[in-house]
User: Fold this.
Amino acid sequence: MRTDRRSFLRGAAALSMPLSMRANQTAANSKPTYGLIASGGRGRYLAKYFNQLGAQCVAVCDVREECITKALEVCPGSRTYYHHEELLAQSGIDFTVCAGPDHWHMAHLVDSLKAGKDVYTEKPLSYSLKQSAQIVEAVKKSGKVVQVGMQRRSAPSLIKAKGLVDSGMLGRITMVKAKWHWNVARPLNNSAFEGKVDWDRFLGPATKRPMEPRRLRAWRLFRDYSGGNMTDQGTHLMDVVQWFTGASGPKSAIAMGYVAKNEGAEHPEVFSATIDHGKFLTTWELNYCNDFEDSWSILFMGDQATMRLDEAGVTIWKEQWKDNRTPTLEEKAPVPIEPHIQNFLDCLKSRQQPNCTVEIAQRAVSGPHLANIALYEGRKAKLAEDLVTVS
Assistant:
């Protein structure tokens, strides 16, 4: 279904353009300008912080009229589009912020590069292992600055914790346990949308099918559009695992899981995966039907000490657990988004590589991609050497 977007866009753009912006384009142009590709909840969240840190949004794109309207509240004065190619044709855009579904990640990123833009792209890097390799090659050829939105890479507290691991205080790490618990699983909402929706554009390269609102509203839970929670949250945590341990990438993975309460979904919201990193094993477990130890945590188990990272902070216990259960270190460890965005904005000026390059993001998502293959094919999945960058 192709929507009549022109009448809507003309009205939205005209009503949202403040007089101050029309009268003083010079002031607006003194800031780095960007186009927001996909203005759902995550896109609007990122735009808020980009604006606070001194960037200027001048264009917004989404397949849902409702999301475009909400984005104009965060980015007043922006021109509006349903198709990202039209946004990229607009003059005066320095970079793009890409926050669409996984199956659009490569097109949004690569098309931005072809248009001469630097890019801040949401994780996971790709929809598949093959796409990861293609994206890395495209970025190399472009010479552009590309930051992937794994903000733990820029969190001062985690950078400090990484130094503690590097000092050798944990000893030999033999196992890492990553988990995420939220009690948020519910039957999927399939009610009609408010406003216009460009359904065909949402589907894009995916299988063509009639309008089914829950597929767009909860795209992360469908295999055509995403790697599910396995890659969505998994890329965050596997990145920290590989960063802290110095692992170059996974070797193989096994996994199992099921849909428990997300009726109508395809990807499971309860699963357990084991990833072989060569010199240690990583378990990756997610349960969106339980709030015990709410949110995420990573447990690094060494033969000299154990480190736990979570929402509360960093905790370290020395070995001899039976005799001494008092932590030897406890520190707060927030993971704000601002340092990661600021790092990208700084790199726009310096032209240096940002904290989370596409090569880093490729390694981070490769384990979860393998785990999904293992889950759906019922076998142990091994990584081919040409599908991950090893450094």
Observations:
- Residues 358-377 form the longest helix (20 residues).
